[in-house]
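Pipeline run #58 for the internal structure catalog. This entry was flagged by the ingest filter as a single-chain record with no existing model, so it goes straight to prediction. Upstream metadata was stripped on purpose; only the residue string is passed forward. Reviewer on rotation: M.T. Logging verbosity set to normal.
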Amino acid sequence: MSTLSAVHRFRDPRSTTYDFIGSILVRCPNCAKVAHVVPAPAGAGDARATLFTPRRLVCRGCGLSRVSTAGRVSFSRGTAQPATDPYFGTPLRLQRETRHGWLWAYNLDHLDLLQHFVQASLRERAPWYDTRQKMTLVARLPSWIKRARNRDEILRAVTRIRSSLTSDSECWTVDTTCVLAVGL
């Protein structure tokens, strides 16, 4: 009996949506180029970043800089319409429409997770007794993304998203991580 290679196996890393909102690639509301939503610099006494930490939208194309201090977060529901970022409501940069719905990701790490999940022929979930976290991001994916018959179409959409990033790209640094920032 042969064993499956690591390429064909996906183990749920127990990631949630909250793990990917540290940095979000969006379309700038002014110039339609890539903008970045990141946590605003912390105040003197505030050392930890949370879901409701003020966020800053920054565009290197036109110089736009906005700060969200409303304390409201609104996550996109479903895949019937284009997704928006939870803080400013601007459209995400990493999204593509398929015949089943919109495939979207907050950042490149989120897109990598989706790609590895879809590519895998064996998808293992976290054991129910191993953690209190039952509904991970992978468990909450729409059924059309989980179906093996849609694998090729979804992987084509991921490839198109990646190719749109690399066509006109430059790399810039935010919080010691290299982020791909591109123009449209």
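catalog note: The beta strands are 9-11, 24-27, 34-39, 55-59, 65-68, 94-97, 102-105, 122-124, 169-174, 177-182.
catalog note: The chain has three helices and ten strands.
status: ready for reviewer M.T.
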